[in-house]
Design goal:
Blueprint: E1 2-7, E2 11-18, E3 23-31, E4 35-36, E5 42-44, H1 46-64, E6 73-78, E7 84-86, E8 96-97, H2 105-115, H3 117-125, H4 134-144, H5 146-149, E9 154-156, H6 158-167, E10 171-173, H7 174-177, E11 183-184, E12 189-190, H8 192-198, H9 203-206, E13 210-212, E14 217-220, H10 223-229, E15 236-238, E16 241-242, H11 243-250, E17 259-263, E18 267-270, E19 285-288, E20 294-300, H12 304-313, H13 318-327, E21 336-338, E22 355-357, H14 366-390, E23 398-401, H15 408-418, E24 422-425, H16 430-442, H17 449-460, E25 463-469, H18 473-496
The structure holds adenosine-5'-diphosphate and 5-O-phosphono-D-xylulose.
Length: 499
């Protein structure tokens, strides 16, 4: 049995995988809170992730009806890009700045200029550093909290931090590392010189974790943590990875041809590539995969983070929200939402804020408002899909995952707007499943590593035929009109909010 954990933005999910039968035996979850401010700050206390880890794990074990002693390996997936700083004693220095934090956008801009703009960054790192990436958070910390900066002994990403807590070792792996902004995705090495630009003392380079291959273990779980979690003290912790990299494994997206889309707090879209296929479009992030190749990816910052705001404003539960979306017609009778509540990565509008356009005395209804936010957030993904397609990636079908993939209403909107059929895997918590599969891979001996991973995915990733959704050509054509309008309005907004 293997334990898969996904530390997402809104919560931690855990599941128990029987890798022999390929069945998920039980799952659990626990939520996180967010510390936000109007200046774009988005932070979380890493200690909260530990509590959620424990709660979700205990729930998953209980639901599976097994003893924690049966767990052989643990795989941890985590939200990408977050910055966790530890001192020499391993204590957390300050709250983690998250992937969706836009407070350090000015610092990102300065670093981008140092790299020679998007083109220079693409040439040097293989990615154009964007607001939200880890690197700008380091410069921000140096300037805003010099006393804490001076005490940095370890620079970790969220999943690295959880692995450090589990094992006592500071390690990272290529997939998550490639979202840091101080990593060369082509050579799979840290870019120490960029860190020296932030602090020439060499302190940051010394604080980097050791890089692991994706099928390498970090090490055994520490006895006191095994006891706290009720797990086998012999259990081994796998390298784990970023949530999108683990989502790729958990949807069997380990060969070219498939596209995975995640409807989580963020919206993401990614496809496996055997080469570091660097797109000329700076908004396509050619991250490394955690299965050997690369994972060109699009991320929108405003997905269920935005729909959740409207849902809360109207005091709706998730079902009532979905029912209202369904009630309103395509285009929400002219109501258009540009849902960039905290700026946006794709389209690149880090300094923008949200707006609601086209209101008149008839169309400002609860149903139209719910539909407008779902359409507005989905259009961001549609724009991303166009960029991925323009970069040469195939996209015959989409494998849809993440919290909102559970909703038939969302599934139909996405299929129609993308003009592409989709299907969900049985396990929509695909990042947690991918992490459990990776743990099984890590502990399965044998020479042909790729074949072994493929066999595990074959056995453990099942599609749920009942979620298969076809685009309706008439609806797709209707959305096309609304999407054109959205693109025009985004261009206008971009003129007033340069990146
Ligand atoms: N049954 C459902 N129908 C529609 N949306 C849902 C459903 N369940 C969860 N969600 C949405 O998914 C969101 C959480 O997605 P999730 O992928 O767990 O996020 P993260 O990994 O970023 O924490 C919730 O805030 C909610 O908006
Ligand atoms: O920043 C990115 C991808 O580059 C996000 O996808 C984060 O990885 C957060 O994921 P969720 O919490 O939405 O799953």
């Amino acid at each position: 049995m293997y334990l898969g954990i996904d530390c997402g933005t809104q919560g931690t999910k855990a599941l128990v995988l029987d890798a022999d039968s390929g069945q998920v035996l039980g799952a659990g979850s626990a939520s996180h809170s967010l510390q936000s401010a109007a200046n774009g700050r988005r932070e979380q206390q890493p200690g909260q992730w530990l509590e959620a880890f424990e709660q979700a794990t205990r729930q998953a074990l209980a639901a599976a009806g097994i003893s924690g002693e049966q767990i052989l390996g643990i795989g941890v997936s985590g939200q990408q890009h977050g910055l966790v700083l530890l001192d020499e004693q391993g204590a957390v220095l300050r709250p983690a700045k998250l992937w969706c934090d836009t407070e350090s956008t000015p610092e990102n801009q300065r670093l981008l200029e140092h790299l020679g703009g998007a083109a220079g960054s693409l040439q040097r790192l293989g990615v154009a550093i964007a607001p939200g990436y880890t690197v700008s958070k380091l410069l921000w910390t140096r300037e805003q909290h010099p006393e804490l900066f001076a005490r940095i002994a370890h620079i970790l990403l969220p999943h690295d931090y959880l692995n450090h807590w589990l094992t006592g070792r500071a390690c990272s792996e290529y997939g998550d590392a490639s979202g840091s902004g101080y990593f060369d995705v082509r050579t799979r090495q840290w870019d120490g010189a960029l860190l020296d630009f932030i602090d020439p003392s060499g302190r940051l380079q010394r604080a980097l974790p050791q890089l692991l291959e994706p099928d390498q273990p970090v090490g055994p779980i520490r006895p006191q943590i095994a006891e706290r979690l009720g797990l086998n003290p012999q259990a081994v912790v796998a390298s784990g990875g970023g949530d999108n990299m683990m989502g790729a494994i958990g949807t069997g997206n380990i060969r070219p041809g498939a596209i995975t889309m995640s409807l989580g707090t963020s919206g993401t879209l990614y496809a496996y590539s055997e080469q570091p296929m660097i797109s000329p479009h700076a908004q396509v992030a050619t991250f490394c995969s955690s299965s050997g190749g690369w994972l060109p990816l699009i991320c929108t910052m405003n997905l269920t983070s935005a729909t959740g705001l409207i849902q809360q404003l109207l005091e709706l539960d998730i079902q009532a929200f979905g029912a209202l979306v369904e009630q309103a017609p395509i285009g929400a009778e002219g109501l258009l939402m540009l849902p960039f509540f905290n700026g946006e990565r794709v389209p690149a509008l880090p300094n923008a804020r949200a707006s609601l356009l086209g209101m008149d005395s008839d169309n400002l209804t609860r149903a139209n408002l719910c539909r407008a936010v779902v359409e507005g957030t989905s259009f961001g993904l549609r724009y991303g899909l166009d960029l991925l397609r323009a970069s040469g990636l195939q996209s015959q079908t989409i494998r849809l995952i993440g919290g909102a993939a559970k909703s038939p209403v969302w599934r139909q909107v996405i299929a129609d707007i993308m003009g592409t059929p989709l299907v969900c895997p049985r396990q929509t918590e695909a990042a947690a499943l991918g992490a459990a599969i990776q743990a099984a891979w890590c502990l399965t001996p044998g020479a042909d590593r790729q074949a072994q991973l493929a066999a595990l995915c074959e056995r453990c990733v099942q599609l749920d035929a009942s979620t298969q959704t076809q685009p309706d050509p008439a609806r797709t054509a209707q959305y096309e009109e609304v999407y054109r309008h959205y693109r025009e309005q985004v261009s206008r907004l971009a003129e007033h909010n340069p990146a």
